[in-house]
Structure formats: structure tokens, C-alpha cells
Amino acid sequence: MLLSESDRILFIGDSVTDAGRKRRCSYDLGNGYPKMVAGMLEALYPELKLTVLNRGISGNKIHNLEERWQKDCINLKPDIVSILIGINDTWHRVGTPSFGDEEVLRRFEARYRKILEQTKEQTHAQIVILEPFVLHYPIDRKDWRYDLDLRRRIIERLAHEFAVDYIRLDTLLNQQAKDVGEQTLTGTDGVHPTPAGHRAIAKAWVSMVENN
């Protein structure tokens, strides 16, 4: 991914991206990785005068993203779209018959494909896909792995198909957790990042820019 002067960078997804943003203020970035990325990019490339937007909404699943894609993505005319979605699609199905269900996963793929197609067809935006993740604290989060891994494979396959940047957050954060502990990165639920977790995501995002 390459940055250009005056680029509009859009971060969109669920609560991990939302990070407490004030939704009445269209330019509020919340307190998570989008705000950290904005700060890092401003320090590295002040001459580019970038605009960063956050349209994460807590609790969103892929169908929510699909429903609001025109309003919260296409209409904003972004130059770069960064997508992180999928953990709620797993979390909200734990302990139900739809957990790991083939038809449910087919619908997940179709909806994800649709938003990628829309973005390609209706904008000139570069796309960055962030892999959904879960860390294994509490210990029952290991039970989520079957469904989430199926979704991760779908998302990675789509990233290759659409030739877009892909950041393997699940791999990255679980690897870092071996050194610092899961709670350091995602607190008490294995999903919502602590400041250290958000910083790890932001660094991975900015490293992708620097390495291109």
C-alpha cells in the first residue's frame, strides 16, 4: 500500500475499531488503533496531510457492515479502506447450532465478497484487510477457535483473490502473547485490546506502509 498527499484513510469494523469513538463527531477516532495509526502517520509523513476517519461500530457483524457500506464507506470517498470484522460473527454463535455451520460460513463469505466488490467497483480505494483474532484468556476462548479459523481462512482467501493487503493479526497477537501474556494485550475477554494491544495493531498497520 502506498500513501499519497491528502489521502483519506477509513477504518471500519466492530468494537475493536470503534474503541469508544464519539459517533456524533464525524472526525473522532476513538481511543484505539485508528487514533494511534493517525498519530504515527502524522509523525512519519507530515507533508502528506492525511485525513483519518473511523467508522467502527461496537457489536457489528459482517451483515451490519454490508448494510451500512454505502453510507459509511462508499459515500465517504476513501483512498484507503481498512477492514476488521468477523469476531462477533464467531462470538455470538458460540454454543449454538450455527457455530461452524457451512451455510452460515457461505453467507459470511458472500457478504464479505460483496463489500470488497462494491469498493473495487465504486471507488479507487486501496484495501487493507485485518484478520479477526482471539487470544486464549479466558481459557474457554480456545473453544472459539474452530469457527474463527474457518472465517480467517475465508477472509485470507478473499484477500488473495482481490489482491489486497492482509495483516495476520491473530497470528501476530497470539505470538506476542507468548512473551507478554494474553491479558497484557486483550485484558479479560481475549478480544478487546488494551492500550498495549491497540499499539501492537497500529504498529503492524504502519509497518505494512513502511515496507511497501
Automatic annotation (TrEMBL):
Keyword annotations from UniProtKB, A to Z: Hydrolase
Residue ranges annotated for the SGNH hydrolase-type esterase domain, each copy included: 11-200
GO biological process: lipid metabolic process
Keyword Hydrolase attached: yes
GO molecular function: phosphatidylcholine lysophospholipase activity
Top-level taxon: Bacteria
Keyword presence, Hydrolase: yes
InterPro entries: Ester_Hydrolysis_Enzymes, Lipase_GDSL_AS, SGNH_hydro, SGNH_hydro_sf
PANTHER family: SGNH HYDROLASE-TYPE ESTERASE DOMAIN-CONTAINING PROTEIN (PTHR30383:SF5), THIOESTERASE 1/PROTEASE 1/LYSOPHOSPHOLIPASE L1 (PTHR30383)
Protein name (Swiss-Prot/TrEMBL): SGNH/GDSL hydrolase family protein
Organism: Jeotgalibaca porci
